[in-house]
Amino acid sequence: MSGAGRAALAAAAMAWLAACGPMLGEPLPPAGYDQPRLEASGALTGVTGVDSRHWALLDEDLRRGVYWHSFLQDLVTKCPAVYPEHEAWMGELGLLVRRGTGMAVDRAVAVEALRLRTVGEGADRAAVGLEALGKADVDVPGIMARWLQPAVAGDVDPDRAMVAACNLLFERDDLRGLMRKAADPLGRYFARMAEEHPAILADFHDVEAITRRLDKI
């Protein structure tokens, strides 16, 4: 992936990290989600009752890790339709992603749910937002089209963008780079929890094994 592509990847993540829901001061509906979707703009749609105050309660490294895992997970789920001849290999890759960053996300979300109980008002809404992000469908072709647009004149065809996104899986450096984008912030999250909330982490006996796997990615 080019330097421009990596910069666009980072910009997409930052767009989501900066996103907020309803404007502050507006009455909020109950927190919930229905078919959440991570859009190319960085917005997380399909979520209600969560605004910037609640996103701010979540650990930023955890949010980054969940974002990148969601993107990678959607790649390995959707790309067999683009390259059916590689379906078996992508199935194996999906298992690798699940074992590597997927299990780490599951455990980190459980840890964060307990940590949020210590922060007071808004914690329940923040937890709903984090759960929605972890389950969101990702607009892979839309995101990839935005990454490619600076290098081409005019709009990028969605089918071409999807092929380009799937091609990332075949390049060793690109694939490892995507996995590290999820693994690195998740590793930092667990390290910080071990330092700041050891009592919470002590309830999860598999964290050490999970962090070792993250280090090996």
Could you give a short description of this structure?
With 217 residues, the chain is mostly helical. It is built from ten helices and three strands, in the order H-E-E-H-H-H-H-E-H-H-H-H-H. The mean pLDDT is 87.
Describe this structure in words.
- With 217 residues, this protein is mostly helical.
- Helix content is 64%, strand content 6%.
- The chain has a three-stranded mixed β-sheet.
- Strand 1 and strand 2 form a beta hairpin.
- Helix 3 (60-78) packs parallel to helix 5, helix 4 runs antiparallel to helix 5 (123-135) and helix 4 crosses helix 10 (207-216).
- The two termini are 18 Å apart.
- The mean pLDDT is 87.
Topology overview:
Layout: H1 3-17, E1 32-38, E2 44-48, H2 52-55, H3 60-78, H4 87-116, H5 123-135, E3 137-138, H6 140-148, H7 158-167, H8 172-196, H9 198-201, H10 207-216
Parallel strand pairs: 1-3
Antiparallel strand pairs: 1-2
Helix pairs in contact: 1-6, 3-4, 3-5, 3-8, 4-5, 4-8, 4-10, 6-7, 8-10
Offer a few descriptive terms.
64% helix, three-stranded mixed beta sheet, mainly alpha, 217 residues
The helix-and-strand class reads mainly alpha
Number of helices: 10
**Lateral strand order in the biggest sheet:** 2-1-3
Give the overall silhouette: globular
Q: For the report, how would you describe the main beta sheet?
A: 3 strands, mixed
Poorly predicted spans: none
Q: What is the CA-CA span between the terminal residues?
A: 18 Å
Nearest-integer average pLDDT: 87
Beta strand count:
3
Radius of gyration: 18 Å
List the quaternary state of the chains: single chain
